[in-house]
């Protein structure tokens, strides 16, 4: 995130985080057609941003830590299994156009 | 070798003091087996693993989870010499159990999520960072004797 600079500006961080979460929302609404729904984002990540694919599991982990700590009891084992499977599927689609 | 600052050590030990080793161990191992079903291959003799509730309620899963988490307690008291502390377990996992080291990373990640689940808001980014660092270091120590 070079555009955020060395000192992370909170507003920018929250803004960027919000954009990412909205994209997750798109994925949630198109779970059976992830490839089609996320195609523009797959192009962006693969050809423009070229985010290291290794970073996706890191973000997925952080996302689940957040869900677990905020939802607590609601974050059952079934919920964890479903979200892990779903987010991993999203990451696969986002990294499909790297080559 | 991984170096832990005084602050990281304090964060880790103070959280560990509040962890119920028996329950948390079973929870973490259970979640690993449910979320990553292929890990069940190491536990053929554990009986009923046919559903999430069967796994989470399975007494062998709970017992083994407690054993695994107790070893992690060793890590908390040996943060400065993890390689030595886990040398024997590393040999065991390689030579006898044939567990791919990737599984240590998976379990470490699941444990971090279980801790977040239990501690809620107390599990801040700093706490997460310290624990993630410990889990990564333990995974490395456990893989050290692999050949």
From TrEMBL, chain A:
From what superkingdom does this record's organism come? Eukaryota
The record's keywords, sorted A to Z, are: Heme, Iron, Metal-binding, Oxygen transport, Transport
Report a single Gene Ontology molecular function. Answer: heme binding
A GO biological-process term: hydrogen peroxide catabolic process
Q: What name is this protein filed under?
A: Hemoglobin subunit mu
GO cellular component terms, alphabetically, are: blood microparticle; haptoglobin-hemoglobin complex; hemoglobin complex
Similarity comment: Belongs to the globin family.
Q: Which gene encodes it?
A: HBM
